[in-house]
Amino acid sequence: MNTLAIPDKPAPAPSVCHPDVLDTLANACRARGTGGLSPAAGLLAWYDWALHLSLSPGKQRSLIDKGLHKQRRLARYVAHAASAHGCPTCIEPLEQDRRFEAPAWQQWPFNVIHQGFLLQQQWWHNATTGVRGVSRHHENMVTFAGRQWLDMWSPSNFIWTNPEVLEAIRTSGGANLWRGAMNFLDDAQRLALDDEPAGVEGFKVGQDVAVTPGKVVFRNHLIELIQYTPTTPDVYAEPVLIVPSWIMKYYILDLSPYNSMVKYLVDQGHTVFILSWKNPTAADRDLGLEDYRWLGVMDALDAVTAIVPERKVQAVGYCLGGTLLTIAAAAMARDGDDRLHSLTLLASETDFRESGEIALFIDDSQLAWLEAGMWDKGYLDGKQMAASFQMLNSRDLIWSRRVREYLLGERQEFNDLMAWNADVTRMPYRMHSEYLRRLYLNNDLAEGRYQVGGRPVAIADIEVPMLIVGTVRDHVAPWPSVYKMHLLSDAELTFVLTSGGHNAGVVSEPGHPRRSYQIATRSAGARYIDPQTWRAETPLNKGSWWPAWQQWLARRSTERVSPPAMGGTQAPLGDAPGTYVAMR
């Protein structure tokens, strides 16, 4: 087993009267009131945009012309809609905007109301984009803030401008509002008592989800390693080691039996291991990225190769777990450690220069604020991270949900993925700060500055075959950013683009309705194809991408052998799903 490299002891903490400590204390108090968001970052973005817009008479004239043009379009639409049924709309909502799909929205006067709102939304997008001189980061922040504000005031959010709510009131005699009030009070009580959301009680870990049989075969301070019980008489010789992200509970990949990726792989004849990360506490505040690499990936790899000796490992990483696995693989390649047989990365970024809207929350001002908020607790609360992810898709995850549950009085049917999403995790102060600064802000890994053992690592050193999965509607790791692995490595690379988002696109079991994917392999050393050309030229396949991936793994296996003993020569430490996953 590898031994953990003990980091140098930090310098003695400065006294409480030290200016840095006073600033940190002040910002920590303010961060509690702002939910961890830096007001300075928001004000800088607004000032950058407002000042440059005020100095751009051409842009101002263009916005005036667009505003007048939209008013004329709406006036023509009102005239036609008042006198004719089935009048063509003057503007269509974006593809992902489903707020106005119901037929009632096409009836007078709600057709005019929602068309006016969409035109206003389009105008504000024009106003916040394309202002010369505004930095891209500030432009994205202002555009995002404007969209959040408009989504809050959407006519779908209010009783008298939502025909679906008015119809529910008419047919139920207002009972929907009573049910909605009860739903609101129930949610408020659960929030005040820090209870789980309604519906979670139907998905108990180890009883309803994370039920694939297995054993905990290794444990250290940070992980439990689970080995799953084989279901076939023989197995592929090379074991599969899965590294999930530490910002999520591992059982996203072992939900219900019908959509468990782990169970699917086991049933296909693979020996599967998975990491279950500990939910850290304030005592773990000084754990860093290097600790996660050693205690996580490397200790797990040592344990797997001890249980399945003389066999290389097919390694799989999900989200930031894939990023950490890539760092480990690059260091192993640099140092001549050839225990990896292949590398699969699921919705994992390695170049963070275009990391999507999550980057709106990452700049120097925001990180200083966030670090101050973590400083006194020693960790980032999982609910704060969950709230940030909700804001990225607030239209569906916040406002549409509130309309359904509080105005229509309909509780959303809970499913296993939603229950998992509510099972949040914390992140240590040092590790969270390091990965945000070194990966997201500075992009050290892609640009060759990320150091392991005092020396930089290079993704280009990884020579094993790779399969990279991106998802079409990913708000966390946009697929063109995931696709950048084509620029970082010359190894054989198979890229899969699947329908769905960051979670649902990965948890895409065979038989799942309306699923599709594209897949193509670039041979080692082949020329680069840009992502949009790749998407246009690659055939679309109906169904789940899992079978194609499993066949990819199978083709890289040397033979079928008898299943290895559970835990190898060491007695298992307990049954799956283990103890770390239950930590709150």
Automatic annotation (TrEMBL):
InterPro entries: AB_hydrolase_fold, PHA/PHB_synthase, PhaC_N, PHBC_N. The keyword Transferase applies. Keywords: Acyltransferase, Transferase. GO terms for molecular function: acyltransferase activity. Residues 20-59, 96-265 form the Poly-beta-hydroxybutyrate polymerase N-terminal domain. One of its GO terms (biological process) is poly-hydroxybutyrate biosynthetic process. The keyword Acyltransferase applies. This is Poly-beta-hydroxybutyrate polymerase domain protein. The lineage of its organism: Bacteria, Pseudomonadati, Pseudomonadota, Betaproteobacteria, Rhodocyclales.
